[in-house]
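Title: Comparing notes on inverse folding

I've been comparing how different people in this forum approach sequence design from structure. To keep things fair, I'm posting one structure and asking everyone to reply with a full sequence. Here's the target:
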């Protein structure tokens, strides 16, 4: 990798905006709220330093000259303000700068001295002139690690067959197209990744962020066929859950409930059964009504009883396993046993 350190004025960054791609594959979309954008602009106007922007130079002939590797949110804020689409409103009114008002102003309404100070502000730009795709995604992950990206967004930066298939399922499968799971910040990709982990490991592995990240790396290009097989299994599971979700008025939104249902359906399908969505919905609705009834005080199910009914014991264990460390293998297995006990007859015809 070769990187050249540059100093670009904000005026140049604004003029180059059409040549800078803010949405390469590893990037998320707009994420900063207006107040955070306002603070960045205010910092610039006060002459404070801002973090470096990383731009990857692209081959000529394409629609863009650069990919934004890091600094996408800062670029968006700068461009929005310069275009007049961002007003400097903040809960605590921003103090004057050099005797000129800032609070409530747009770029065009500011004093000309502040406009000049903004456009002439020098930003540090790391221009990546030589790199491989793996180097870029690795750089992106390192820059964002522990800062602003969530685990799903960091996994998306890894590339590889698992990343691409998970993304395809999350963006195209009818379950996700119809569901009420938010489609921002790769949340649907996060749910899809959990479904793939269930297909790959069952209840034998934790499903925490490091475990899912390891799965993305483990199923590399040399295991592409296995990824496709897992994709087929996940697709079959989601076909059932899509039908169940319609019957449930699209109330399947909690991640660990989604995970538990995936494991339940996958286990039955791999045993050769055809799961009937109507039967699964009826059984799960009864279970979920009980779950909600006892969530606040699961101890009621076992307190003061000489002999605890089997299903009450299963429900108690499910609620405790759901409450703490939902992504550990042990708790996933406990919930699977309980859910199987409450859903014994969910198979349909062939």
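Reply #1:
Here's my take.
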């Amino acid at each position: 990798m070769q990187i050249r350190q540059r100093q670009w004025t904000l005026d140049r960054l604004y003029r180059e905006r059409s040549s800078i791609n803010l949405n390469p594959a590893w990037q998320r979309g707009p994420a900063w709220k207006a107040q955070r954008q306002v603070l960045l602009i205010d910092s610039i106007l006060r002459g404070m330093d801002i973090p470096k922007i990383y731009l990857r130079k692209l081959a000529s002939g394409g629609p863009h000259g650069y990919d934004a590797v890091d600094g996408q949110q800062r670029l968006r804020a700068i461009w929005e303000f310069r275009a007049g689409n961002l007003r400097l409103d903040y809960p605590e009114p921003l103090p004057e700068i050099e005797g000129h008002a800032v609070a409530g102003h747009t770029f065009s309404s500011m004093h000309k001295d502040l406009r000049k100070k903004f456009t002439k502000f020098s930003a540090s730009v790391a221009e990546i002139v030589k790199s491989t795709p793996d180097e870029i995604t690795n750089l992106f992950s390192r820059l964002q690690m522990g800062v602003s990206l969530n685990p799903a967004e960091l996994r998306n930066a890894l590339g590889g067959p698992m990343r691409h298939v998970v993304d395809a399922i999350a963006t195209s499968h009818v379950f996700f197209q119809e569901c009420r799971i938010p489609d921002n910040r790769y949340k649907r990709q996060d749910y899809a990744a959990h479904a793939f982990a269930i297909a790959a490991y069952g209840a034998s592995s934790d499903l925490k962020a490091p475990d899912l990240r390891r799965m993305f790396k483990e199923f590399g290009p040399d295991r592409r066929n296995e990824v496709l097989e897992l994709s087929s299994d996940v697709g079959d599971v989601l076909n059932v859950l899509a039908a169940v979700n319609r019957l449930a008025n699209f109330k399947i939104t909690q991640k660990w409930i989604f995970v538990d249902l995936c494991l339940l359906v996958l286990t039955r399908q791999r045993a050769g059964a055809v799961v009937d969505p109507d039967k699964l919905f009826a059984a799960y609705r009864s279970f979920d009504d009980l779950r909600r009834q006892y969530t606040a005080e699961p101890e009621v199910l076992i307190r003061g009883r000489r002999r605890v009914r089997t299903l009450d014991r299963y429900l108690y264990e499910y609620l405790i396993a759901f409450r703490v460390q939902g992504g550990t293998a042990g708790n996933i297995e406990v919930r699977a046993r309980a859910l199987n006990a409450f859903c014994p007859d969910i198979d349909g015809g062939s």
